[in-house]
Design a protein that fits this description.
By secondary structure, the chain is mainly alpha-helical. The chain folds into two domains: 11-139, Orthogonal Bundle (Arc Repressor Mutant, subunit A), CATH 1.10.10; 145-240, no CATH class. Helices cover 45% and strands 9% of the residues. It is built from twelve helices and seven strands. The protein has helices at residues 15-21, 23-36, 53-59, 65-77, 101-111, 134-137, 144-150, 153-164, 173-184, 189-203, 215-218, 223-227; strands at 11-13, 42-43, 46-47, 49-51, 81-84, 95-99, 122-124. The strands form three sheets. A three-stranded antiparallel beta sheet has the order 4-6-5. Strand 2 (42-43) and strand 3 form a beta hairpin. Helix 1 (15-21) packs across helix 2, helix 2 (23-36) crosses helix 4 (65-77) and helix 8 packs parallel to helix 10 (189-203). The longest helix is centred in the C-terminal third of the chain and has 15 residues, at 189-203. The chain starts with 10 loop residues before the first strand and ends in an 18-residue tail after the last helix.
Length: 245
């Protein structure tokens, strides 16, 4: 029998859920539910489980650690999972996870509008599942307008204004376009806040570079480079960059 056919415990996902929250997120949420329901660790009336990202990767060996982080951060931002630190030592940063089942039930009510009541779950084997985008797997993906509604543009711009003492508007077309483009690439709210924090710390007090603390620069084509930059005490000068995306 072919090794590409299911001969091990499969991962499962409801297609209607994947359409609503994303394929990667639906797989991770189902896996967390699988472990939470059998957990004996009850804290504040909820069952919890804990895992490091490396331990999660053992369950999703077809994904990189960064892909798993993005899926988990997305679930946190959507309010579907709750994370915490219940470790005895606060030096231990292993994250604990539980599911906000009330939010899931509310999501289910909305999902029923697009779901076939007789729909069966799709099964993915760990042996042959690839990290792929939702639109490649599910033909009836949400319209662009529904996707835009889920993007926290206002929260991102408010955070930028707070950190940089600015007054950018979240309704500006160019700003919305930049943020939507990054979300389509798989970046999360936490990624935007990290970039804003990094570049504010680096540029805010610089007389020439501070003017580049703006949406079209921060959220443009160099976004991933900003997100992954290493901390440095080097002083950058305007002529070192071509920042007009």
């Amino acid at each position: 029998m072919s090794n590409l056919l299911i001969s091990e415990m499969p991962l499962m996902v409801i297609p209607a859920l994947a359409v609503k929250i994303g394929l990667n997120e639906a797989l991770v949420l189902q896996q967390i539910h699988y472990w939470v329901k059998s957990s004996t660790k009850v804290i504040e009336g909820r069952k919890w489980i804990y895992n490091t990202y490396k331990e999660w990767q053992l369950q999703f060996p077809f994904w990189s650690e960064s892909t798993i982080k993005r899926a988990i951060h997305s679930l946190e931002n959507q309010g579907l999972i709750i994370t915490g630190n219940w470790n005895r030592s606060k030096m231990d940063k292993t994250k604990w996870y539980t599911i906000d089942y009330e939010r899931v039930e509310a999501l289910e009510a909305r999902t029923d509008e697009i779901s076939n009541p007789q729909e069966e779950p799709s099964i993915f084997s760990e042996s042959n599942l690839e990290d792929t985008s939702l639109t490649e797997v599910i033909p009836n993906h949400p319209s662009e307008s529904k996707t835009e509604q889920k993007i926290p543009t206002a929260e991102i711009i408010n955070y930028l204004n707070e950190k940089t003492y600015s007054s950018y508007k979240p309704s500006t077309h160019t700003t919305k376009e930049k943020i939507q483009a990054r979300f389509r690439e798989g970046f999360t709210l936490a990624d935007f806040k990290k970039v804003i924090g990094l570049k504010t710390a680096e540029w805010l007090s610089h007389p020439k570079m501070s003017k580049y603390l703006r949406p079209e620069t921060l959220f443009g084509n160099k976004f991933e480079s900003y997100l992954n930059q290493k901390s440095s005490k080097k002083i950058y000068h305007e002529e070192d960059f071509n920042l007009d995306d």
